[in-house]
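note to self — DONT lose this again. spent like an hour looking for the file last time. sequence + predicted structure for the chain T wanted, 236 res
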Amino acid sequence: MLEIRKKPRESQTAYDDIYTHEGIRQRESFYRWILRVLAPQPGRRLLDVACGAGDLSNLAAQAGVAAYGVDFSAAALHVAKERGGGHFVVADGEALPFADSQFDYVTSIGSLEHYADMAQGAREIARVLAPDGLAFILLPNSFSILHNVWTALRTGRTEQDDQPIQRYAARYEWQDLLEQNGLRTERTVKYEREWPVTWADRWWYLGHPKPLIRLLLTPLVPLNWASCFVYLCRQR
């Protein structure tokens, strides 16, 4: 596992700074792709851990799901609540403020790799997941052929973002972490780029040739070389 730590800074302050300015968001089609894979049923309960600006929770709520989101950035949840739909709570993913087995679906989208204690974060997902529930956990690959490997080839450096802690691992290294902490992997899905399903996202791709090339190459990328892995998990 590769770990990158930036200058010591209290994590909550760091994320409040991020969401006070540019924030962390994906295209709407990305969140719609997650809901297609997860297929949550109306009336069921979904929790998005480290939900950021609440895009997934709010889209799920529009589809009739009882959607919740937690994030320890108050600035992020201020944005999420303005958009409406989901129920949002300021909380740490390593200590979720919910009783055991409360949620039919739990999502963690590119967040667990930034935790101070990833094992505890995985245990909390397993704890709040219902016995027949399904977790959707997205994590980044050390050996992404179109991302990390390509960046290293061009620049001689590892890809970094603005977050205080960044980690990368290979497919089974992430799976081992999850399965040693209360989860069982039922299926692994690759993520490279999602097909755009809104007109705004289609126009965006037309104006951004590099992401468009990655989108077109996505079917050719083997699972072990994908940008990210999605682990669909049950309680162990």
